[in-house]
């Protein structure tokens, strides 16, 4: 797998979308008597048969608790669990599987860093730098620790086009800045942020940098060593894997120096009432029984995605986004949020005279599933003076015909109701 998305001129193998779709059983179902048009992959991606079968096979043949049993079945489950961690490390280009911490979702990964890494270093008047385009998952955990420590969260503004300017970040980094946390891809605007440049800036200024890759992992090849950040999080369920599994990647030396967050089984070395000592990383941060089968299926999802090829996925989705922007521009009164130069497979919009909720409900009558509301990004909507928007998001299985179906359905809705 390449460490970067395809560039113009690269030869990227075309993606056989019909062959891909055939691997997603849910895409053959009908909604309201119509073929399902699933345009909500940014909320959660559908699952290929490889993932569904990995999950059920694991329960049928390999299931036992891990790292505890001396018996063969437990050892087999443990070996598969360890292999899944290796797969995630490979997917992220991590130097060491010890840098991979399994959590429940991207949200929990941010919370872990906020509590175990940042809180002990945070004092009154300190600052945590975020951006106006963050998902609540990358805002609220920081606000919670800031509130406890008398520190504050400082948002970096975004432009009208929905982009970040490096100088706006640089300007706000000061001696009190203790953390910078930025989304790689906006879940509303689709903006692909220049996280490599931001990482270089953070490094120069000595500020720890967390990348929220929840919307990047399904679309872009990741290489944490080339990236140069300190922490990165993503969720398996947006990356064609099961729900209930998330990943925190952190530099080994930072994880090593962090105290535990949650206490319980597996994260300890020795427990006595006189005191407890803690396990090494990553286990120190994995208290209790994890989602054993889900983690195994996450490995299967990443194998599957790598076999499809992230360069091919990226090229496929780039074409779909261009088509969507053109098709939606023909719908009367429709305004797309933001005009970022680099946009992933997400298009949020409003339509004059129609509430986004109604747009979503009417599209549902045609079997078209989109997201409506604030998409867990209230500050971003506030920045654009909107209470809500509608959002179509695409995935590896999305077809040009589905984009056209969305455009046609919106035109019918506008003609009747706007
Ligand atoms: N960050 C971004 C950019 C997201 O889009 C999301 C989910 O939509 C999250 C974080 C949180 O993901 P999860 O709910 O899986 O923790």
Report on the structure:
- By secondary structure, the protein is α/β, with parallel strands linked by helices.
- It has 2 domains: 17-48 and 309-413, Aspartate Aminotransferase, domain 1; 52-306, 3-Layer(aba) Sandwich (Aspartate Aminotransferase, domain 2), CATH 3.40.640.10.
- Helices cover 39% and strands 17% of the residues.
- The chain contains 14 helices and 17 strands.
- The protein has helices at residues 17-21, 49-62, 72-92, 106-118, 140-149, 166-172, 195-204, 224-227, 252-257, 292-308, 310-329, 356-365, 378-383, 400-417, and strands spanning 30-31, 34-35, 37-38, 100-103, 127-131, 152-156, 177-183, 209-212, 231-235, 246-250, 268-272, 275-278, 334-336, 346-351, 368-369, 371-373, 389-393.
- A 7-stranded mixed sheet has the order 4-10-9-8-7-5-6, sandwiched between helices. It has a 4-stranded antiparallel sheet with strand order 13-14-17-16, with helices on one face.
- A hairpin with a 2-residue loop joins strand 1 and strand 2 (34-35).
- Helix 3 (72-92) crosses helix 10 and helix 11 runs parallel beside helix 14 (400-417).
- The longest helix has 21 residues, at 72-92.
- The site of pyridoxal-5'-phosphate has 15 residues, from helix 4.
């Amino acid at each position: 797998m390449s460490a970067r998305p395809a560039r113009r001129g690269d030869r990227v193998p075309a993606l056989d979308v019909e062959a891909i779709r055939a691997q997603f059983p849910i895409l053959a179902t009908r909604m309201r008597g119509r073929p399902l048009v699933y345009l909500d992959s940014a909320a959660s991606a559908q699952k290929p048969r490889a993932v569904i079968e990995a999950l059920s096979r694991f329960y049928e043949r390999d299931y036992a608790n891990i790292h505890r049993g001396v018996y063969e079945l437990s050892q087999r489950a443990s070996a598969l669990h360890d292999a899944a961690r290796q797969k995630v490390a490979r997917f992220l280009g991590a130097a060491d599987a010890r840098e991979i911490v399994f959590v429940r979702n991207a949200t929990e990964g941010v919370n872990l860093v906020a509590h175990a890494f940042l809180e002990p270093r945070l004092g009154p008047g300190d600052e945590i730098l975020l951006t106006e385009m963050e998902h609540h998952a990358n805002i609220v955990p920081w606000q919670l620790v800031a509130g406890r420590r008398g520190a504050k969260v400082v948002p970096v503004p975004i432009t009208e086009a929905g982009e970040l300017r490096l100088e706006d970040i640089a300007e706000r980094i000061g001696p009190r800045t203790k953390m910078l946390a930025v989304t790689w891809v906006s879940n509303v605007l689709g903006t692909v942020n220049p996280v490599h440049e931001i990482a270089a800036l953070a490094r120069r200024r000595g500020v720890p940098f967390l990348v929220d890759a929840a919307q990047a992992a399904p679309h872009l090849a990741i290489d944490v060593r080339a990236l140069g950040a300190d922490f990165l999080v993503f969720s398996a369920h947006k990356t064609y894997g099961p729900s209930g599994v998330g990943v925190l990647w952190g530099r080994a030396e930072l994880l090593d120096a962090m105290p535990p967050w949650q206490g319980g089984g597996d994260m300890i070395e020795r427990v006595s009432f006189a005191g407890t000592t803690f396990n090494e990383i990553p286990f120190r941060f994995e208290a209790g029984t994890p989602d054993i089968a889900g983690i195994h299926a996450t490995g299967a999802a990443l194998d599957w995605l790598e076999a499809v090829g992230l360069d091919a996925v990226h090229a496929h989705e780039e074409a779909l986004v261009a088509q969507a922007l053109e098709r939606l521009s023909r719908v009367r009164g429709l305004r797309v949020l933001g005009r970022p130069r680099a946009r992933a497979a997400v298009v949020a919009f409003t339509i004059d005279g129609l509430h986004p909720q109604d747009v979503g409900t009417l599209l549902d009558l045609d079997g078209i599933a989109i997201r409506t509301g604030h998409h867990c990004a209230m500050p971003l909507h506030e920045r654009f003076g909107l209470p809500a928007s509608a959002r179509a998001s695409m995935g590896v299985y999305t077809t040009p015909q589905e984009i056209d179906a969305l455009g046609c359905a919106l035109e019918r809705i506008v003609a009747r109701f706007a």
